[in-house]
């Protein structure tokens, strides 16, 4: 099964004759922020770790500690090793930056984010050496009267922890072993946190065999990254990959500090992670050693073994992207608590406790910026805005009057929350603008229940009219006026945004928009509902991302007062005033995944479009879940969108 996947294409790498690789996967990076502004909860500074090795560290510091009056009270130091799969990803990406900022704030602690060298140019154990360099750097600066102030004055080097995700979890374990051989006092590694550590072996485990074409880490990719990272001539049973085998590391296991091992049952490596936790737990020479294991998704094999199944535990070090985005989504509404982490009040409004970091627009080009962005007020009275993204290649090219498409993007928010300018939406729009290429207009639309549907459709139409106005105005916004092709506009929405794209396409058929033309509509996992449950909903009522109780609540809060889920805004398959216009909309791309409880509704929607004579491209993948584009930005989504746009160009 895995032979159908090209692991090099999946990883976006090309091997070079000299043994190095060229990396085509790109994530936006965030610069350190060491000057406090009002509202900044965490500051950061970059330092050179080893100039010869070209390694660095970024130190994160919670501002509450800098401004507190707690005297000599010091806070723990956490060494963080990001997940790179050994071979790629930036140590200073927006994802790593967010992760470390949240970690520093929530614990609170000083977090030392370590840039370690990548394979295959630097094979293991180079990464372990870089991590140890960071530990020694902290020790040196803590003991030096002229050392880095945050470390020297605020860090507790007797309370240090290692925390690694993916390949970083592997690093944390082997550096813990190395630390047992070294004289680090007064610095002490008190604990080791391993989140989904990457381990391998020549003999396949049950969890690997059950999921050989995992969306994130198919087995052929796992095999490739270990082949590229292990010492030359070694296979996956080398102890760097498979610490369960006997090796020179075995005798030191009993000497490492307490361990926290985190795993998820959807991970093909879950069996290896459980086996790893077992061998660490079985070592009883060090009575202080504690192994805590957390699993998510469903009970692990054999009920979690003797570890138990901590259903309601939320350890401070845990950062699960899905759970963190959606809050406490497993518990239905009770009193003033509702199931996606909000508070509800008698005036019909809600208080939103979910906070996703936002990114400011960047309209001044730096050499490494592939996409620029600008913010504009859309409607001052409605308090709506848009952010326009522009690929810099277009600004610097010499292609004369060649214009590029314009894509109106409506982000997912379940109608009721999530920022239009969040880091996730920003990354999505950046990649979209860069890969198509196109001008992307990211629309801030009003949220329910304060503004019920069709307010969101009106806001989207406002954005379309804004673009038309600026394209035709000699003094209009330059990016739109000089570079955008308004005869080649597309709507693209995710989840609730997919619903918006459909209903705005219907509205556009009634309006005189020429010369602006909506050529196509892209609906990625569009959010639809209905009173009669579908098979896919009944099969997955407790979905991790969109459980049925959350879907029902979102519709209750967003539909017009007194309407149920069979209103045409929710269920366009029913007859309604929209039906007669369906045949008039442009080409449609509908994307869905079988792990989404709404997949049946999305397929019914696609079939309805076909019955009305709409030209449609339906892409339904057996592997995936609702919101997969947030969790797995490497997916082929942008290539599918680009292909759809190229095929529908006027």
Question: How would you summarize the topology of this molecule?
Answer:
Elements: H1 7-11, E1 13-15, E2 21-23, E3 42-50, E4 55-62, H2 63-67, E5 75-81, H3 94-106, E6 110-114, H4 126-143, H5 149-154, E7 155-165, H6 167-179, E8 189-195, H7 206-210, H8 219-229, E9 258-264, H9 270-282, E10 291-296, H10 321-326, E11 337-338, E12 342-344, E13 350-352, E14 371-379, E15 384-391, H11 392-396, E16 404-410, H12 423-435, E17 439-443, H13 455-472, H14 478-483, E18 484-494, H15 496-508, E19 518-524, H16 535-539, H17 548-558, E20 587-593, H18 599-611, E21 616-621, H19 628-631, H20 637-647
Helix pairs in contact: 4-6, 13-15
Q: How would you describe this structure to a colleague?
A:
The chain is an alpha/beta fold. The chain has two domains: 27-319, Alpha/Beta hydrolase fold, catalytic domain (Rossmann fold), CATH 3.40.50.1820; 375-527 and 580-647, Alpha/Beta hydrolase fold, catalytic domain (Rossmann fold, 3-Layer(aba) Sandwich). 30% of the residues lie in helices and 21% in strands. It contains 20 helices and 21 strands. The strands form four sheets. It has an eight-stranded mixed sheet, with helices on both faces. It has an eight-stranded mixed sheet with strand order 14-15-17-16-18-19-20-21, sandwiched between helices. The protein has a three-stranded antiparallel sheet with strand order 11-12-13, with no helix packed on it. Strand 14 (371-379) and strand 15 (384-391) form a beta hairpin. Helix 4 packs across helix 6 and helix 13 (455-472) crosses helix 15 (496-508). The two termini are 39 Å apart. Residues 284-345 have low confidence and may be disordered.
